[in-house]
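Thread: quick sanity check before group meeting

JM: Hey all, I'm pulling together slides for Thursday and realized we never actually wrote out the predicted structure for the chain we discussed last week. Dropping the sequence here so it's in one place. If anyone has concerns about the input, flag it before I start.
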Amino acid sequence: MLPELDLAAEEVIGAIQREVPEYARPNDDSYNTAVRRAVRHALHQFAQQIADPATPREGTAQLFGDIGRIEAAEGRSLEPLQTALRLGARVAWRRLYLAAGRGRLDTDVLARIGEAIFLYLDELAAACAEGFAQASAEAGGEMERRRRRLLDLLVADPPVSRQAIADRARAAGWPLPRKVAAVALAEHSEGRAGPPAGVLPALPSDALIDMARPGPCALVPDPDGPGRTELIERGLRGWTAALGPAVPLARASSSLRWARRALVLARRGIISPGPGVTRCDEHLSTLLLFSDEDLVANLAYSRLAPLGRLRPAQQDTLAQTLLAWLQNAGNARETARHLHVHPQTVRYRVRQLQMLFGEVLLEPDARFDLEVALRARRLLTGATARPARNIPPVQAAAAVAAQPS
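JM (edit): ok, ran it. Output follows.
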């Protein structure tokens, strides 16, 4: 074998460059030098192992591991490299077969060397695959780190400069979208049923996700694009999550803030989450109303103070009637239909309310405040798990508002 190794190497190199397009680079001297070095090393190492099976193999494994890493770095799959390895083995086997035909090799020796070629081929392929996998994992891990750092910048409050975001987005391979929507995700440690820890939501591939930060979140580009709503809903199935409104990229932190607020309100029962993800777009008035719970509780307490003179059951009945009456522009019949009672019952209750609230019910600004206070009361008292007996509903509402989020 030894006298023909250099000729065999040239034949292998020629066959690879003819039949594997990825390695046909006639004008790239450094690349051709690397190919020649790898082929010559592989052939000489094989011959050395035939001569002395105890020959160390670490250098060959390192060389072909590096080749696998180069393939990953250049963005290719392992298929061209595996094709080149098989082609090299076939060329080497053909030269041995021709040597046997000239009577220079015993057929038993030929069979054993043929078996050794294919075992060696497996070793080289395994080294290439290991190097390729390591480089791919490192590249993937680095890209994920870049995407998480980009997410940090995008949701920072106050926002960072557009140029800083553009630079970080370019490094992360993330095209800057026109609009984004943030997703607030519940942590697994909260004991809720859902996907196991370590599993990411199956959001679109261009979504930025970070489950390791306090308050896991994601950022989805172009959430209003064709089919995107269905993709997001499906990807969040089984998760406790809230989707913020679509906003310009520079306001991503606002979308996340609203999504987190919606998630808190949904957990407390103030927002009904429904069967899927909680969508902020469907609860904007509630989010506005509860942007400052101390303030809304004080509003409820001051505007609904007249109800505090009644028994709890009467408070509930008259508060419900007053809200329906205001929502139906003072129309007794529509209010009755809304409450499923007789119009005369509504008129009786309204007279009670007029006695309690007096001229306030005739003032437009006061009526607006009353409706806001009654909506807040309904949401807050509906969210508490314990009925506040013997406490006026306005005080109960304030107590609920004071509960930790």
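AS: nice. Residues 384-405 have pLDDT under 50 and may be disordered. The radius of gyration is 36 Å.
JM: adding both to the slides.
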